[in-house]
Amino acid sequence: MSPEYKSWKEIPIAGVCWVPSTEYKTGDWRTYKPVWDSEKCIRCMLCHIYCPEGAIKYNAETDEMEFNYDFCKGCGICANECPKEAIKMVLEGKE
Ligand code: SF4
Ligand code: SF4
């Protein structure tokens, strides 16, 4: 190991989440909210694959992409990766 890096035994203990991630709702971190456009969407599922929170799922019964806003942090990756610009990031409360 390079001398400028400390081992994990030397660094101070960091903050640790005290509940499972399923109970720690991160949606309130969000500033911008992804808003989905059904007309533009081609159901390619790229947003589902790229979302780091697993917050986008396809509902086969309704043929809709569903966003779980309890966990969506508003990172905008889904909007960035969507090939059809079917997701717009909108200031929270202005959607
Ligand atoms: S990435 Fe865009 S086009 Fe593909 S499923 Fe998601 S919203 Fe629809
Ligand atoms: S904004 Fe980020 S966290 Fe929210 S649905 Fe899109 S990719 Fe997932």
Describe this structure in words.
The protein is of the alpha+beta class. It is 11% helix and 19% strand. The protein has two helices and four strands, in the order βαββαβ. The chain has helices spanning 46-50, 77-81; strands at 32-36, 56-59, 64-67, 87-91. The strands form two sheets. Strands 1-4 form a two-stranded antiparallel sheet. A two-stranded antiparallel ribbon has the order 2-3. The chain is elongated, with a radius of gyration of 18 Å. Bound molecules: iron/sulfur cluster (2 copies). The site of one iron/sulfur cluster has 13 residues, from helix 2.
Helix content: 10-25%
What structural class should be given to the helix and strand makeup?
alpha+beta
Report the end-to-end length measured between terminal Cα atoms.
Answer: 49 Å
Could you give the order of the helices and strands? EHEEHE
The overall pLDDT, averaged over residues, is 89
Quaternary class? single chain
Question: Which CATH class of the domain at 32-91 is shown?
Answer: Alpha Beta
Strand order of the largest sheet: 1-4
CATH topology of the domain at 32-91: Alpha-Beta Plaits
